[in-house]
Write a structure and sequence with these properties.
Layout (H helix, E strand, L loop, with lengths): L2 H14 L9 H10 L6 H15 L2 H8 L8 E4 L14 E3 L1 H6 L22 E5 H4 L1 E5 L2 H4 L8 H4 L5 E4 L24 H12 L20 H8 L5 E5 L2 E2 L12 E2 L20 E2 H6 L9 E5 L15 H7 L4 E5 L6 H8 L9 H12 L5 H17 L7 H4 L2 E5 L4
Parallel strand pairs: 1-4, 4-12, 5-6, 6-10, 10-11
Antiparallel strand pairs: 2-3, 7-8, 8-9, 11-12
Helix pairs in contact: 1-3, 2-13, 9-14, 14-15
């Protein structure tokens, strides 16, 4: 890939994601991404996805992919470089045959071969996406999949109770602080609580609770509880809460962390945040036998799926895979809370819209299915088609962020 194309793709990404860029605050970044950036409307998002697709894949690559269309869909394993680790490859728009025929290495994605900039995106793409050609998943980093690791079978575990860690209370953090509540005050009438009430009606879960509301904002779920409870071999793990990506300039992916209810007195590799010690990938990697992961793990947390940002991809996804997971669904970037979405989308945000809840329910449902990775992809396609048809209640900031790592690609 030409360096100019790589640079252009990273600029496109910076302009779109709800991640601070330049001097932006987190609040400014969320507002830009939701209201003014390339992902703010279906039309601008389609042009953005086309431009990324043209920058990252040659016409020959698109032709090869189009020849692989089949029923059922093939599974496409992606292994990005560090600079492309947050690219939502599934969203890339498929170019038209005319666009591919006119493509040349000397033109940018916004230009045709004669230098003319098309005024109509329909000249460039029909709006179909890579996710409609194939089920797009992330390949497990080679240094991880080839390392000695626990092997756990979904078929052996599928009837065991799932472990649900939902918005744990981080010690010393107010609900409205940066490490405060992700889902807001627990309510039995919220969509996500109603979903888990239905789950409780049909199966046992861990922790053992009397009502769905008791699953949220717990202060007893620390790494000691996690270690002890994982020994009981749950079928899967769903974590919804805060994660901290490893600093990009630090060079150490194992500094990535999730935030459980761990007090500062609990030993670990992370520096203390107030009265709280984060649980890092390094903690898990130091002794994976202490935290034996189930075959399926979902980490609905900020940038939890960005292991590939580092040359040595040993972040949180890699750690849970080494500890036994076969399928890991995570997010490429930080997701705005429901309150944040409603604030910035204003009149276009229905008061009943809860995109975070929809995503959590979709991931939990997919991880109960026979094929978790394909089930996540089916939900993303359904959301993408709603968005493509003009439904602003299916915002790509949410469904575009999901990626699933699958052990099995080599």
């Amino acid at each position: 890939m030409a360096e100019s194309h790589l640079n252009a793709a990273t600029v496109q990404l910076d302009q779109a994601l709800p991640v601070p860029y330049g001097e932006e605050s987190t609040e400014d970044a969320i507002g830009r991404a939701l209201t003014a950036g390339p992902l703010a409307s279906p039309d601008s998002e389609l042009r953005w996805s086309y431009q990324l697709g043209s920058l990252l894949l040659s016409a020959q690559a698109w032709i090869l992919l189009s020849e692989c269309v089949a029923d059922p869909r093939p599974m496409l394993f992606v292994t990005p470089t560090a600079r492309l680790a947050q690219i939502p490859f599934a969203m890339l728009a498929v170019p038209t045959a005319l666009s591919m025929a006119n493509a040349s290495v000397d033109t940018t994605p916004a230009e045709s071969s004669d230098g003319r900039e098309p005024s109509d995106i329909a000249e460039l793409t029909d709006g179909y996406r890579l996710m409609e050609i194939a089920d797009v998943v992330m390949a497990t980093p080679a240094n991880i999949v080839r390392a000695p690791r626990r092997m756990v079978s979904w078929e052996d575990r599928r009837h065991n109770p799932p472990m649900l860690i939902l918005d744990p209370r981080v010690p010393g953090q107010r609900p409205d602080s940066p490490l405060g509540s992700v889902l807001g005050r627990p309510s039995p009438t919220s969509p996500v609580a109603q979903h888990f009430a239905d789950v409780l009606a049909t199966e046992a879960v861990v922790p053992d609770v009397g009502s769905a509301v008791e699953l949220f904002r717990r202060s007893d779920i620390d790494r000691i509880w996690l270690s002890r409870t994982l020994q009981d071999e749950p079928s899967r793990l769903l974590f919804v809460g805060h994660a901290s990506a490893a600093p990009g300039d630090a060079g150490y992916a194992e500094r990535a962390a999730i935030h459980l209810a761990c007090e500062e007195s609990i030993p670990g590799y992370a520096d203390v945040v107030g009265t709280h010690r984060p649980f890092t990938a390094a903690d898990l990697l130091a002794d994976t036998s202490r935290w034996p992961m189930p075959p399926r793990v979902a980490l609905v947390a900020c940038a939890s799926g960005s292991d590939y940002r580092f040359d040595e991809a040993t972040g949180m996804v890699a750690a849970v895979i080494l500890a036994g997971a076969e399928v890991v669904t995570a997010t490429l970037w930080s997701l705005p809370t429901t309150a944040g979405y409603r604030r910035f989308r204003g009149e276009s945000a229905n008061v009943e819209t809860d995109l975070m809840a929809e995503l959590i329910v979709a991931v939990d449902t997919a991880h109960r299915a026979d094929d978790a990775a394909r089930s996540v992809g089916r939900w993303q396609r359904a959301q993408m088609r709603r968005w493509r048809d003009g439904d602003h209640g299916a915002h790509p900031i949410y469904w575009g962020a999901l990626v699933t790592y699958v052990v099995g690609a080599d």
